[in-house]
Known about the structure:
Strand content: under 5%
Helix content: 55-70%
Order of helices and strands: EEHHHHHHHEEHHH
CATH architecture: Up-down Bundle
CATH superfamily: Rhodopsin 7-helix transmembrane proteins
Radius of gyration: 23 Å
Largest sheet: 2 strands, antiparallel
Structural class: mainly alpha
Distance between the termini: 61 Å
CATH topology: Rhopdopsin 7-helix transmembrane proteins
Number of helices: 10
Number of strands: 4
Amino acid sequence: MEALEEVELCFPQLHNASCKKTKRPHFEAIMTYIILSSISLLTATLNLLVIISISHFKQLHTPTNFLLLSLAVSDFFVGLLMFFQIVLIDGCWFLGDIMCVVYLCVAYIITAASVGTMVLISVDRYVAICDPLHYSTKVTQERVQVCVCLCWIGSLVFQSLMVKENLENPGRYISCSGECVVVGNYIAVFADLGLSFVAPVITIIALYTRVFATAVSQAHAMRSHKVAVTFQGSVTVTFQKSELKAARTLGIVVVTFMICLCPYYFYVIVLTAQDILLSAKSAAFVICLFYFNSFLNPLIYAFFYPWFRKCLRLIVTFQILQSHSCEANIL
Length: 331
């Protein structure tokens, strides 16, 4: 016979004004906090190593790597935000209404910036695979940097407008003490879903479908020795295997991102369309799953990118502190 779950108040002194939380076994609670805290710390640390690697070593200053740098920055902040999500794991928020709105606003900005960066990565791979002859002229470091800045600025402005009323009146929409929510009108919510989820997902799927179709045909051509193409009668351009490998690796990053992102937005859609409140455990699970993607990304880099493993060795052995270390041969 299963025992009924006990409930307790987030703020017992407030009685009926306090939100309720589910009381879990002590061992389960401790293990949950330890595991999530470890993942949070590792997420921030690993992505900080990616940031240092790409920022420091000049050989890594390429358009594609600048996009990975943008993704690593968002993933680094996700690692920090996970500490706040751990506070919410039992459905209770103890840091006040202002911190609640700030936390959720920052989380939305980072999420939107991550999605935007994924779209830029897909565009980068599309041009590299489908139009390799013009890649170096179409995708330059300056253009990528401008696109990344616009992505972050756009995310900041759009998401700040989304929660503007909540920022002006923190705690206005909470139903009990210990709750952490922001509320927007239906138009704003569906606009956010369209711009931050539906449109980017359709774009990513369309671009990568074309990328992998082209990659497969190019791979067949390479095996048939029909890759060489003469450009302007003097330059022979060979389809590089490295581009195929990069497309595969970044494809894994994109697919992993989609797997971790979709449950979160499906949760938001269900919450909005049916106007129901799912359990705190359900909300915590989909949010933690999305955050977990930020932990996986640097592991994917470590597994598929030799340059990242080499950078790690130079960083952990403090060789990065030597003069002219930024000129080191990484590739």
